């Protein structure tokens, strides 16, 4: 049941200073932040001013094809377009939430012909059964928002819109990183294909030599079979690499919003150096990741919702007025004798709703706690991802150095085995074993180079890709559509 108490006795309430019942907002506490990343090692920041390039962070790889493809993502990827639409919806919600803070003015009018029953109860003498009714009126209503219900609603929607803007930045960062990851994998496969193509030619020549030695009664048929198997195995590996490359090419097409059927990237072997990635100090990570900013803004939104729930325990006081003109004939409608008006404050106060308001406040407080824990989880995940990226880069760099040494050793062994075979000092099995080991070592080294590049991409992503909280839309930006209308 709701009681509506209009009257001048409530006018003094309109003069009260409005307040907000939302809790004082504080960013949730997080576990102690160290002064440096544990796995930083040689990746430790050298100068405080160093940062990942803002915006086009992929430019650190110095590859024009990658730059060209990355430039297409924001304007053509449908997932980003969907996130932009979600952000626009959130901004429109801010405008809707701000609307009740303005006086609500409504105008209306009616020109009607009426007929009533001549048998109606309480029909007075001389009352006509048919008459005209003309009305022109305007009303204004202004909610004083003494307890901050509307202002907290606006604050909640503003924070939610800011979170949506940060979500958009998170999606953009993720998709740009995915493209860089796929592109480096594709170029790694180009290098693998070139290596295998060269190996196929080497094995083809080796087969010809072995066949000639067999024809000259120098080599056995087993040597020929081994050479043939070695060649065909390398050819199959080359085909598999081409199949994997096609999948990455298709993935890149979808990321830039193009049909995989009409898209291709010309094969090219490029040397992409692993860039220096400045990590900064751990405390700045909280300001550099859009997903952390989004989680923090959702805490702020939940905090404002608590204020809305608390305001429901207090009366809603508003000022309203109605003015207009009314007549029942064809005379001029707008004239003083035909005017009517009403003005005064109103109070609406729910007396009993079966525990609804208590439950709403409990739910709001629980949502606030949940948002705080979600924020802490995102922070912990972000530190884990940075440490993962740093340790992966360090370990891969060591592994690559070791593998490059193995490549040199296996090359010497393969050259020695072939020389001995030509001199008749060994059989072809030694040649196959050493050449296979040499090819495997080369392929492993190429794969490690690709993994190292991909790990650097993931580290850039973990560090926020050059984003900062300065890029978070402020309240004026998310409320550009807000205003009287």
Short recap of the structure:
The chain is α+β, with helices and mostly antiparallel strands and 485 residues long. The protein has helices at residues 64-76, 78-98, 149-215, 221-255, 290-311, 356-422, 428-462, 475-478, and strands spanning 2-4, 104-115, 130-143, 316-327, 339-350.
Question: Which features characterize this protein?
Answer:
single chain; alpha+beta; Outer membrane efflux proteins (OEP); 54% helix; disordered N terminus
Give the domain tally. 1
Number of strands: 5
Main-sheet strand order equals 1-5-4-3-2
| N→C terminal distance | 33 Å
Radius of gyration: 37 Å
Q: Give the helices and strands as they follow along the chain.
A: EHHEEHHHEEHHH
Helix proportion range? 40-55%
Mean pLDDT comes to: 87
- Kindly identify the CATH topology: Outer membrane efflux proteins (OEP)
What is the level 1 CATH name? Answer: Mainly Alpha
Number of helical runs? Answer: 8
Largest sheet: 5 strands, antiparallel
Low-confidence runs (pLDDT<50, min 5 residues)? 1-16, 42-51
Shape: elongated
The named CATH superfamily = Outer membrane efflux proteins (OEP)
Name given to the CATH architecture: Up-down Bundle
Strand content: 5-15%
Structural class: alpha+beta
Structural write-up:
There is one protein chain. By secondary structure, the protein is an alpha+beta fold. The protein has a single domain (20-100, 146-314, 360-477), classed as Outer membrane efflux proteins (OEP) (Up-down Bundle), CATH 1.20.1600.10. The chain is 54% helix and 11% strand. The protein has 8 helices and 5 strands, in the order E-H-H-E-E-H-H-H-E-E-H-H-H. The chain has helices at residues 64-76, 78-98, 149-215, 221-255, 290-311, 356-422, 428-462, 475-478, and strands at 2-4, 104-115, 130-143, 316-327, 339-350. Strands 1-5-4-3-2 form a 5-stranded antiparallel β-sheet, with no helix packed on it. Helix 6 (356-422) packs antiparallel against helix 7 (428-462). Residues 1-16 and 42-51 have low confidence and may be disordered.
């Amino acid at each position: 049941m709701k009681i509506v108490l209009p009257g001048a006795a409530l006018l003094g309430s309109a003069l009260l200073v409005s307040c907000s019942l939302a809790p004082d907002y504080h960013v949730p506490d997080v576990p102690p932040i160290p002064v440096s990343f544990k796995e930083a090692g040689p990746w430790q920041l050298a100068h405080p001013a160093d940062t990942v390039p803002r915006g086009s962070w992929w430019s650190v790889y110095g590859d024009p094809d990658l730059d060209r493809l990355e430039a297409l993502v924001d304007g053509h990827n449908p997932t980003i377009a969907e996130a932009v639409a979600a952000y626009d919806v959130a901004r429109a919600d801010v405008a809707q939430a701000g609307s009740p803070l303005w006086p609500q003015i409504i105008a209306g009018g009616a020109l009607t012909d009426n007929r009533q029953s001549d048998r109606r109860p309480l029909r007075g003498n001389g009352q006509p059964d048919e008459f005209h009714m003309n009305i022109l009126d305007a009303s204004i209503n202004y909610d004083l928002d003494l307890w901050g219900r509307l202002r907290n609603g606006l604050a909640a929607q503003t924070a939610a819109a800011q979170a949506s803007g940060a979500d958009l930045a998170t999606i953009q960062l993720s998709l740009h990183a995915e493209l860089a990851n796929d592109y480096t994998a594709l170029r790694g496969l180009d290098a693998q294909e070139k290596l295998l193509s060269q190996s196929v030619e080497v094995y083809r020549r080796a087969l010809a030599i072995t066949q000639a030695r067999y024809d000259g009664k120098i080599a056995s048929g087993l040597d020929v079979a081994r050479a043939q198997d070695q060649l065909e195995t390398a050819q199959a590996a080359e085909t598999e690499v081409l199949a994997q490359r096609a999948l990455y090419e298709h993935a890149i097409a979808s990321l830039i919003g193009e049909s995989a059927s009409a898209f291709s990237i010309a094969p090219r072997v490029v040397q992409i150096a692993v860039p220096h990635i400045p990590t900064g100090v751990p405390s700045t990570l909280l300001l550099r990741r859009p997903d952390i900013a989004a989680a923090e803004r959702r805490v702020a939104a939940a905090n404002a919702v608590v204020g809305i729930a608390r305001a429901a325990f207090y009366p809603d006081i508003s000022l309203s007025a109605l003015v207009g003109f009314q007549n029942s004939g064809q005379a001029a409608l707008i004239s003083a004798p035909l005017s009517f008006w009403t003005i005064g404050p109103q109070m609406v106060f729910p007396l009993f709703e079966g525990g609804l308001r208590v439950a709403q406040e409990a739910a709001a407080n629980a949502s606030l706690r949940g948002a705080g824990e979600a924020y802490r989880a995102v922070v912990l995940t972000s530190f884990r991802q940075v440490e993962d990226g740093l340790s992966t880069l360090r370990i891969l760099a060591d592994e690559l150095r070791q593998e490059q040494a193995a490549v040199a050793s296996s090359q010497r062994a393969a050259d020695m085995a072939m020389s001995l075979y030509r001199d008749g000092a060994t059989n072809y099995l030694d040649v196959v074993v050493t050449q296979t080991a040499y090819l495997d070592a080369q392929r492993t080294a190429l794969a490690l180079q690709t993994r190292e590049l991909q790990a650097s991409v993931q580290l850039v992503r973990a560090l926020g890709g050059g984003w900062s909280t300065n890029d978070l839309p402020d309240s004026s930006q998310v409320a550009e559509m807000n205003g009287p209308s």
